[in-house]
Amino acid sequence: MPVVPPEKLVKLQQQGEGIRNICILAHVDHGKTSLTDALIATNGIISPKLAGKIRYLDSRPDEQLRGITMESSAISLYFSLLRRNAPEAEPERKEYLINLIDSPGHIDFSSEVSTASRLCDGAVVLVDAVEGVCSQTVTVLRQTWLEKLRPLLVINKMDRLITELKLSPSEAYTHLSKLLEQVNAVVGSFALGERMEDDLRWRERIDEKVTAAVAAKGQHAGDGTNGVSKGRKASLAEDDEGLVTSSTPAEYEEKEDEDIYFEPERNNVIFSSAIDGWAFTPRQFAGLYEKKLGIKRHVLEKVLWGDFYLDPKTKRILGPKHLKGRHLKPMFVQLVLEQVWAVYEATLGGPNKKGDPVLLEKITKGLNLSLPAHVMRSKDPKALLSAVFSAWLPLSTALLVSVVEQLPNPPTAQQARLPALLAASPGAEHIDAGVRDAMTHFKPGKGQPVVAYVSKMVSVPESELPVNKRRGGMLSADEARELGRKKRAEIEKAQAQANGNADVASVSDAFSSAAIGDADEITGAPEPEPEPNEDPEHLIGFARLFSGTLTVGDEVYVLPPKYTPARPHAHPQPRKVKITALYLLMGRSLESLDSVPAGNLVGIAGLEGAILKSGTICSQLEGAPNLSSTNAISKNAPIVRVALEPAFPGDLDKMIRGLRLLEQADPAVLYEQLESGEHVICTAGELHLERCLKDLRERFAKCDIQAGEAIVPYRESIVRAEEMNAPRDPALGRGRVEGVTTSKQVTIKLRVRPLPVPVTEFLVKHTGAVKRLYSERKAQDQERASPLGGDGTTGDALEDTGEQDIDAEDTTAEGGHDLSLAEFKQRLADAFAEEKTDKDVWKDVVDKIAAFGPRRVGPNVLIDLTEDNLCEKFLREEHEAPADNPNHANKHTSTFADKVAYAFQLATHQGPLCSEPLQGIAVFLESLTIHSSPEESAQNIGRLTGETIRTTRDAIRSGFLDWSPRLLLALYSCEIQASAEVLGRVYGVISRRGGRIVSESLPEPSTNFTILALLPVAESFGFSDEIRQRTSGFAAPQLVFEGFEMLDEDPFWVPTTEEELEDLGEKADRENVAKRYVDKVRARKGLVLDRKVVESAEKQKTLKR
Ligand SMILES: Nc1nc2c(ncn2[C@@H]2O[C@H](COP(=O)(O)OP(=O)(O)OP(=O)(O)O)[C@@H](O)[C@H]2O)c(=O)[nH]1
Ligand SMILES: [Mg+2]
């Protein structure tokens, strides 16, 4: 098949109606990349024989070796179709441009799915016919729902039902019906959720109206006598009911939800086997049987799936009621599945699994297929199977026809999708009407406003850019062979290096016939001494154009993710950049473009440095929309943190440069430099980390880098425990500390207590709300503050850095963004009210909260009990803003109260156990006394500030240690699909690593168990690999960060009573797990360890002798 020249694709970019932008989504390993192979083969990019085996879009060697996609990649494909406009008309050739994004299914890379889906108009969701709906299937379905993408369902790996499960066609039909029900149940639950929300909103609106009406009428009634007013109210109550019922039909519209479900009769379900290269929809079979049965095609289409039967005598279609006790097979079994099963029987079945030539001949004759003679003689039954199917039910036809017919083109999709998307974007009411119109009504013309969304930055080596490559799509045979040879060598090298035993022979063969390929980017082993600038990386924005035409040389504004059209000039000011090049994305290779109209996916050069990870591009600044995604599905916040250092200290700069590049090129990576000077990257999981390190070593930093042991986060907390020591100072009570600064000028009295559990839980869950309330308050304060307000003390400078931390953090993962201040306060008060002991302590504290911490948003609170309310109230309404000129003396102490608040941030940021953040602590500030005059302290303000902060921090720490301290472990929730045979081994691994099973289920129609477990992050390294090894690859875990859980053991506990000593011996042989973790973290951080380095020296001496 000849390669489609890029010029043809470029021409098609101009016709919006013929474009389809789709992404392929599924759980890991359900066959996305194999399926796209079949589509790529139709454009002559790979040989059809290899489709489904080569996984062309997995172009990284590590993707090939592991068989896992790690990056989403896009490719543009040409497809043409002969179509009749009317039944009698001459068929007309219609041409289409399919822009396709293959996404990764592994949970570590789920952020790539969110970025891909925002660019597309439709989605192809795959489900493995045997495994059924898995965790990521639900996630991607939710993503299509939230992004309002029109989905198609592909039930892939149908061959497994035949060859592995050995189901009969009837059994397979039952299995498939159940699977479909399962998928539809998931979609239905989203619809239900939305409907309930609508319903609630509608009810609220009605309630509001009723109250308003009551109030209005009540006012009228106020003029009259009481009696009259009562009478009116009574009648209003009736009215009231009447209002609700009578307005129901008018106001509340039931949404049509028919078209959200997957139904084969509606042609949005495709049955396929990517590996054997076939797929079909009932519509195709309807075409096949139309003449044979004499039933109209559109009728057949509707009855091929479902409870419909064919009367063998009359050739009429019967519903289930008309069976009259006869045992007929559903039409889908008889007319569809049995035919497919027969091909398998004819090629792979038969007496000795070598096929059944007689049956095969019958089939090929019956279907009027002509297979080349050499194929018919072939000894390889698989080749025969593929040949029959590629002549009969080629995968690409079923899929591409469905895509073209069922999924919307950009004009239609934008009209349907963009109004809601724009309405949900920040500052929506300030979006320019012209821009809004050009986007929703798809105006690709030259003078129209240009709006594009860049979902991620892709890094491409310089040698890969089209300017440095020979132009033209086709390679000569020699070049292709040479490229193939090179690739083969490289992959083998990489494989030898990885020491894996995956079968890559087929892969390297496959690449040898790849026609468009990419040259040098696959570097097996790094060269011994690579030159730093030998092949620098370029960052290219992966974007979708929504309106206008973008041309090389255009100058456009780059809007950062926090931009809002309400304040277009707010800091940071959007930058204006010049587009230096545009590219058509063809997997790993790029083709230069001069300009590109709306509705297309495009690679944009010139954004390097202007966009960190994602952003919006617009030709105007005022009234530009911010399209940054708010519907990110990736709950998987970066959790695996590792400190890196170069193997040769001289390479440090290279490494830092590389880390910065990596952070830009990967949406899920965070890079930070700790105060200790360590360079730390946070990644979404172990596999992700591995990929990042490989990229760093080979592409971004080009130097050898060593990764330290993963840094696992912990939290520190306190509880009231039975075996606690007596309070340090019985006169003050437990947790109460009186701190005096060294100069004796400031005295602080405070008390530390554990927060009630419901409160801590509420705060952990609603970090998003606290964050938002905090930034709103900050904005208010800034507006109020006079320009001369700042007092420029060290404390303030320090505080600023704390604020940056908050801003820099990704907020998508946190809940509670939409809680209003009043709601938040109410629910927090409810949480406090749940605490039954010490009711007095927690009464009315919500109004006294001065701060949350650490980083001002954490789950610890500072409560101001001072007489003059020295600290500012945190949860205050706007009108409650403090007066600007409190009296002089008070202001003087208030300054110090600020320092106390800052010390609270410090103390909660680094706890006394092992310098990890605290969780669930309340600090009551009881009094703050200054023993010097304002003038005196003004003179020594620097010293006093330092002293106050230090004293307060130490006081909080010793208050903390007066209770029984606890360590909280980070936990993963872990989902594993495993067959009954390997279940025992999976349980073994989980329990040995200190995990526990939460549930085990066997969801129909899958034959695999789904196990849900909790596993400490600290014990999770190597877990996936171990599970895979122990189960010979039959179980693959998906780990998601779940939260922190308390380890109920005091790390300082030592046996003291006689009984305990007797039980455990002096050394407490039972290991204190909490202490082990604490010591490990302390050792890593270089903190003092109270450990005897030499124990029983005498014994060691004898040992030596
Ligand atoms: N039996 C069978 N195996 C298939 C089929 N399609 C894909 N596979 C196999 O399933 C495995 C995963 O295929 P991929 O195409 O890499 O799956 P993927 O969905 O792209 O995986 P990720 O991108 O890593 O999420 C490979 O070993 C394929 O050979 C199919 O139709 N039948
Ligand atoms: Mg894949």
From TrEMBL:
Residues 774-784 have a biased composition (Basic and acidic residues). Keywords: GTP-binding, Hydrolase, Nucleotide-binding, Ribosome biogenesis. One of its GO terms (biological process) is cytosolic ribosome assembly. Residues 217-249, 774-800 are annotated as: Disordered. Residues 17-412 form the Tr-type G domain. One of its GO terms (cellular component) is cytosol. This is Elongation factor-like 1. It comes from Friedmanniomyces endolithicus. The lineage of its organism: Eukaryota, Fungi, Dikarya, Ascomycota, Pezizomycotina.
